[in-house]
Structure formats: structure tokens, C-alpha cells
Design a protein that fits this description.
alpha/beta; six-stranded parallel sheet; TIM Barrel; 8 strands; two-stranded parallel sheet; single chain; binds pyridoxal-5'-phosphate; globular; 9 helices
């Protein structure tokens, strides 16, 4: 991968985001891109940084640790964990990542909060992941109990809940994707209305195959791998 290739892909993606935002009466500036660098060499993170994108997403703790040590400091880049986190890797995750987008249980949230307090590192930025795939094996809180769970997580001292994240079902069924994204946007609105002190605004939803629909349905952060960086 070269800078020029990625730069051209980024420009094209931004055009598509702009068009989708316009269709929905939204502002393109309210939608940010999280380049997903998993499965690519550490160089991909440098490329993204050189293009001025201030964040990257990785889905595994060991892979991110290896890239961090290969690269050294990456000023101006926030590292986001977007893959499932086991509680026994929580401490390591907090050393490598700036944001944990994949908090999928109150138990995990408790563990992260406790470690953040122990290590006196100030509140950890997280998103709460909601399961919208309808598959039990997919990570995330079940939508029915999610409002209460987000309320409990918000009360933890070591965390700052920025919003919600979801991994939509892998389907070409546009109507289904739209329903899923709309549901998560609705849940965020309820969290804001019903959980006192909740100020989260982030909706991390939309990937290479469905990001335009996600923008139309209110996404504020698109997690984009293939469409930006090519096949893994
Ligand atoms: C890999 C991954 C993405 C990006 O997938 P693409 O289809 O390559 O854009 C987004 N979110 C999560 C959670 C992922 O694991």
C-alpha cells in the first residue's frame, strides 16, 4: 500500500460520505472515519497518520501491542479497540488503547473501571457495544437490557461513556441494515433522555459494505478497513 493509493481511496470515501450526509440532511463534518488497520502491517498506521486521520482501529490486543512496539510513539493518533475483549486482557488493553469501543458487558465495564482507578489513569473513554445481529455468538449487549446496562456502566467511576457501537449483521439486505442502524440511533437517544448524566453522542456504526446507509441513519463514526486500505 502506498500513501497515494490510500489518499485516493480516502478522497473517494469522503465524497461518498458527503453525498450520503446530504441525502439525509446531515453535515459530513459530523461523521468521522476510523481507519481499521487490523491485518495490515504497522506501516498502514503511519500512512493513515500522514494523511492526517487522528485515529485507528485494531481488533486484537496482541496485534496492537506488536504494532505499538514496532512503531514507537504515534503522536496525534488515538488507538481504538473494536474487537472482543476478554477480562483477563483488560489491563493490557488499557496500556495499548486510548478508547475501548467494544465494551459488551457490565462485568467487563466493572473490570476496566477498577483497573483505571487502580492505575490512576483518569477516566477511560469507552463505547458500549450493542448486539444487533440477532446471533447469540456476536458480541454486544442484547438490545432489550441495554438501556439499564448503559445506566449501570455510566455510574462507574473509572469510565467515560462516549456512546454506542454496533457490528451490523453481514448482509446485503439494505432494509434490514437500515432498521438495525435506526434501532441503535434510537437507543442512543433514549440513553440521552433517560440516563441522568449521560452525554454520549458517538454512534460507531457502518463498515466498508454498509457505511452510506449508516450515515443516512445517523452514524457519527465509520469503521473502515477494506474500502480504505484494501484487502487484508
Ligand atoms: C474489521 C472490522 C471493521 C472493518 O471492516 P471492513 O469491512 O474491512 O471495513 C469494522 N469493525 C469491526 C469491529 C471490525 O472487526
Amino acid at each position: 500500500m502506498t500513501n497515494d493509493q490510500v489518499e485516493a481511496r480516502l478522497a473517494r470515501v469522503m465524497e461518498r460520505i458527503g453525498a450520503a450526509a446530504e441525502r439525509a440532511g446531515r453535515r459530513a463534518e459530523d461523521v468521522e472515519i476510523l481507519p481499521v488497520t487490523k491485518g495490515h502491517s504497522p506501516r498502514a498506521i503511519e500512512v493513515v497518520r500522514e494523511l492526517g486521520v487522528g485515529r485507528i482501529g485494531e481488533n486484537r490486543v496482541p496485534e496492537a501491542e506488536a504494532k505499538r512496539s514496532a512503531l514507537g510513539p504515534t503522536p496525534g493518533v488515538a488507538w481504538h479497540l473494536i474487537g472482543r475483549l476478554q477480562r483477563n486482557k483488560a489491563r493490557r488493553a488499557l496500556r495499548v488503547f486510548d478508547v475501548i469501543e467494544s465494551v459488551d458487558s457490565v462485568r467487563l465495564a466493572n473490570t476496566l473501571s477498577r483497573i483505571a482507578e487502580e492505575e490512576q489513569r483518569g477516566p477511560v473513554d469507552i463505547l458500549v457495544q450493542v448486539n444487533t445481529s440477532g446471533e447469540a455468538a456476536k458480541a454486544g449487549l442484547e438490545p432489550e437490557g441495554a438501556l439499564d446496562a448503559v445506566g449501570e456502566i455510566c455510574a462507574l467511576p473509572g469510565l467515560r461513556v462516549g456512546g454506542l457501537m454496533t457490528l451490523a449483521p453481514f448482509t446485503g439486505d439494505e432494509a434490514m441494515l437500515r432498521t438495525v442502524f435506526r434501532g441503535v440511533a434510537g437507543l442512543l437517544a433514549r440513553c440521552r433522555a433517560e440516563i441522568s448524566g449521560f452525554q454520549g453522542r458517538v454512534l460507531s456504526m457502518g463498515m466498508s459494505n454498509d457505511f452510506e446507509i449508516a450515515v443516512e441513519e445517523g452514524s457519527t463514526r465509520l469503521r473502515l478497513g477494506t474500502v480504505l486500505l484494501g484487502e487484508r
